Amino acid sequence: MQDTLPFLSKNNPFSPSLSSHHHHKHHDFPSLSRPRNLHFPTFSSKTITIPLPPKPPKIPEIPSISPPPSSHSDFQEKMLYLDSIGLDFFSLIQHHPPIITTSLNDLKSTVDFLTSFNFSTLELRRILSMCPEILTTKPTTLLPIFTFLFREARVNGSDLKKVINRRPRLLTCNVETQLRPTLYFLQNIGISEVKKHTSLLSCSVENKLIPRIEYFQKMGFSYRQTISMFRRFPQLFNYSVKENYEPKLNYFVVEMGRDLKELKEFPQYFSFSLENRIKPRHQCCIEKGVCFPLPVLLRTSEVEFRNRLEVCCNSSLPFKGSPLWCTKNCDIE
């Protein structure tokens, strides 16, 4: 066959066999019968990191401070209600945040309960402003406190409003853990008329009452003398050791040079202002060369004090039994 078809050349690209002999099989054309080897570009096994453009800065979301729709109206109603009785809602929640979560009905029930004891709007405004915690105290908790004041502390009904006005914090105290233990402690040291000193009932026995008794014992008073002083003047329990006892006792001993036994008889000394009463009057006595007993020195009015000074300086000394008695040695009889 190669002899009859000598014109078929593998190197002749224009061979007519490709066009005239369509009946030939594929294998007659080696160049077409071979599987094609497709050559793709090879990629490196190394990972190529293409930097991404920086993300635009995310705008922070500003949290909404407005109350949810379901509570928004309740929030406004509470604010309007408290405003109607003269209370600043935002000032109250600043000092006692739980008011925010207290329902309007609970606030109203507490105010209504206090109103039932004949507290005026003005009194309620003062009480609740001084002690906002009362607003979140339910009537079921307040009632045992009023019962305790009536039955155990023996507070007269006519004096009840005065007691609460003087010490609103009583209405936030627990009867079992605070009010009753303090009452028993005061009675045990001989203060029988606790109803005259009800403000002390809100004090902690361990943290306030006992430390003050111990301070006077450290200063040289016996336990009996100390208890006698507190029994004579229970308001001593209300004063600060650092801000009251220490500076006044130091001035009494160092500057005035007086004997501690005078304080046993007149513990009211600690109730007078050091700067406005004790020091000025003591200096006047120093200038005049006289010394009054503590009650005369501090209890008398300014006019009466000046008159006594003049009497002592411009006349002969009175008898020792006279309240006008004065001496440079400060003898007390």
Automatic annotation (TrEMBL):
InterPro entries: MTERF, MTERF_sf. GO terms for biological process: DNA-templated transcription termination. SMART domains: Mterf. The gene is LOC18598369. This is Transcription termination factor MTEF1, chloroplastic. It comes from Theobroma cacao. GO terms for molecular function: nucleic acid binding. Keywords: Transcription, Transcription regulation, Transcription termination, Transit peptide. Transmembrane segments: none annotated. It holds the Pfam family mTERF. The lineage of its organism: Eukaryota, Viridiplantae, Streptophyta, Embryophyta, Tracheophyta. It comes from the Eukaryota. Belongs to the mTERF family.
